[in-house]
Specification:
α4 (122-130) packs antiparallel against α5, α4 (122-130) crosses α9 and α7 (250-275) packs across α8 (280-286). β10 (186-190) and β11 (195-199) form a beta hairpin. It is globular and about 65 Å long. The chain is 35% helix and 24% strand. It is built from nine helices and 16 strands. The longest helix is centred in the last third of the chain and has 26 residues, at 250-275. The strands form four sheets. The protein has a seven-stranded mixed beta sheet with strand order 1-2-3-4-5-6-7. A five-stranded mixed beta sheet has the order 8-9-10-11-12, with no helix packed on it. A two-stranded antiparallel ribbon has the order 13-14. The protein is an alpha/beta fold and 339 residues long.
């Protein structure tokens, strides 16, 4: 009988490497996969999970199935700054002294989170207003301002990672920068086993959100597409994603995502032809969303925010490619075809 990928447990993916799904509070993603690598001195964890009341129990139960405990984790390599990947890594350090590693490109984002001191996606709200969705921005703010926030979840890592080789307990991994989902997103390649720990950069059934982080907006989709292109030749590397089942060709999935975004560019350009002059919010509401082709109005508030920001990211790239023109009116961009 098949098991849904998010069902709690500990699943072997290669000799000495195990996938442990840790549950998430949202219905959409269901769980985050953390990967336990057995080393000569204990365990390395790829991604830490979300610091929630049940996370420690779930991780301990999974590790017990392979004769280990969280106390055996000597290092946690985090793919990016989002709380479902980073915050429990910090908790493991508090409990057991595990060393936490994070990409150097996430330094500014981590500083911004600590400065803001809450869970409001401030930069995304700025982009919503630029997209002409001020009302949606107000709803997102109202939904997130009272969410619990613990500043100790966002302590700095022990080490800022940069591209290159990293050896821990006999395991050698290659660190590859893949900006787009966040500015400092990393993937970790295990060349000996032909594995690629892809975080949220490559997901098997969905496309990751683009630029969902605090800070300036620097064509995140263009960065994401460049990062996908760099992995286009990784055909023989098996994908180990942070959400969804493991397996499949990393290179093949990278090319699928590149093709998806080119189709999305065509759809967005067609919408601008029909609606121009139009805002990013106008275009987002004209598109369908998810694999189920859902109407924008059927999405919840958070996913309407993500959809609008993703649409704006596509529009910005089309402007950079000189396919569209944008004109600012009182802080809102209006898009037309280039003359």
């Amino acid at each position: 009988m098949s098991t849904h990928w998010a069902e709690p447990g500990c699943y072997p993916v290669a000799d000495g490497i195990h996938r442990i799904p840790l549950q998430l509070p949202q219905d959409g993603l269901r769980a985050v996969n953390v990967y336990a690598l057995e080393t000569s001195t204990g365990l390395v964890l790829i991604d830490g999970g979300w610091h929630r009341p049940d996370t420690y129990r779930e991780l301990a139960a999974g590790l017990a199935l392979i004769g280990h405990s969280p106390a055996d984790i000597h290092d946690v390599l985090v793919t990016h700054i989002h709380r479902d990947h980073y915050t429990f890594a910090v908790e493991l350090r508090r409990r057991h002294g595990s060393r936490v590693h994070l990409g150097a490109g996430e330094s500014a984002g981590l500083h911004a989170i600590r400065e803001l001191g809450n869970n409001v996606p401030d930069s995304s709200l700025r982009e919503l207003r630029r997209a002409g969705a001020a009302g949606l921005a107000d709803r997102v703010h109202a939904d997130s301002i009272d969410e619990p926030f613990d500043p100790t979840d966002w302590e700095a890592p022990d080490r800022w990672l940069r591209p290159g080789a990293l050896t821990l307990g006999g395991h050698t991994l290659e660190i590859l920068p893949t900006p787009g989902h966040t500015k400092g997103h990393l993937v970790f390649r295990d060349p000996a086993r032909r594995l690629l720990f892809t975080g949220d950069h490559l997901l098997p059934t969905i496309t990751p959100s683009i630029g969902f982080e605090l800070g300036t907006w620097e064509l995140p989709l263009d960065n994401f597409l460049r990062s996908l292109t760099l992995l286009g030749d990784a055909d023989e590397q098996t994908m180990l994603p942070a959400h969804g089942p493991d397996g499949g060709s990393a290179g093949g999935r990278a090319r699928e995502l590149l093709a998806h975004h080119e189709r999305r560019f065509d759809q967005i350009r067609s919408a601008v032809i029909d609606l121009a002059p139009c805002t990013g919010f106008d275009v987002a509401r004209a598109l369908t969303w998810t694999r189920r082709e859902r109407a924008f109005s059927s999405l919840d508030t958070f996913n309407q925010m993500v959809a609008t920001c993703e649409t704006l990211a596509h529009l910005d790239v089309l402007v950079a490619r000189s396919c569209l023109a944008a004109e600012d009116h009182d802080g809102v961009d209006f898009f037309t075809l280039c003359r």
